[in-house]
């Protein structure tokens, strides 16, 4: 296991998408091995590739890594996207954990039963605009720098941009009350490696469509 990292997951966003974003932001080329059916997952489980019998799984530096946060932490540390000291790392971890909470709400929307979708959407928008985005708006404003932590590009910036763009896909005017976040979005979108990842034809995945949900569920259930 050498060369480019290899990502094992279904052909969609899910919990692998933040990993794709972080590798792309670091300028790291990666390969993807898509699971198309439940048999593909079972094969990985049976050959011992999945420590806890679940994906995402990333082959990198001779390891078969599982658990999304562990993978993200490793990539961030390896490519100098994890702050300059323990305090900065703690701040990055704090911010990223909040982003992951919001990310779960955004990702799970297509999988909600029809009678729950409206409530789920309203709850997601409420938490984004009243719990999470005000915090990041204030952090950036009080900090007075271009980046969330220190004055250095980090995984927190990458993952916040990912969340902002996902939120706008759900509700295009969701950042209307957050001018600092709007400026942040514009600036980080122009970081060369991220700008490349945002172009058509990159390995960034499109929003999950409801028509794809049954295919995804058949892999895991």
Automatic annotation (TrEMBL):
Its EC number is 2.5.1.18. The keyword Transferase applies. Residues 3-83 form the GST N-terminal domain. Pfam families: GST_C_3, GST_N. Residues 85-208 form the GST C-terminal domain. Keywords: Transferase. CDD domains: GST_C_Alpha, GST_N_Alpha. It is an enzyme of class 2 (transferase). GO terms for molecular function: glutathione transferase activity. Gene3D superfamilies: 1.20.1050.10, Glutaredoxin. GO terms for biological process: glutathione metabolic process; xenobiotic metabolic process. Belongs to the GST superfamily. Alpha family. This is glutathione transferase. It comes from Psilopogon haemacephalus. The gene is Gsta1.
């Amino acid at each position: 296991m050498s060369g480019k990292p290899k990502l094992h997951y279904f052909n969609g966003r899910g919990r692998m998408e933040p990993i794709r974003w972080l590798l792309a932001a670091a300028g790291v080329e990666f390969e993807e091995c898509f699971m198309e059916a439940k048999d593909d997952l079972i094969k990985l489980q049976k050959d011992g590739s999945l420590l806890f019998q679940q994906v995402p799984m990333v082959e990198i530096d001779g390891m078969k890594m599982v658990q999304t946060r562990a993978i993200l932490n490793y990539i961030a540390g390896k490519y100098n996207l994890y702050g300059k000291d323990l305090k900065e790392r703690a701040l990055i971890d704090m911010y990223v954990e909040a982003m992951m909470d919001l990310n779960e709400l955004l990702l799970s929307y297509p999988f909600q039963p029809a009678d729950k979708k409206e409530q789920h959407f309203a709850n997601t928008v409420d938490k984004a605009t009243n719990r999470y985005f005000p915090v990041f708006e204030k952090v950036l404003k009080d900090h007075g720098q271009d980046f969330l932590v220190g004055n250095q590009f980090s995984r927190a910036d990458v993952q916040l941009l990912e969340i902002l763009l996902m939120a706008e896909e759900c509700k295009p005017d969701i950042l209307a009350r957050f001018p600092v976040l709007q400026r942040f979005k514009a600036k980080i979108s122009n970081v060369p490696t991220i700008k490349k990842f945002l172009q058509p034809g990159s390995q960034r995945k499109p929003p999950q469509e409801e028509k794809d949900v049954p295919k995804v569920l058949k892999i895991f259930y």
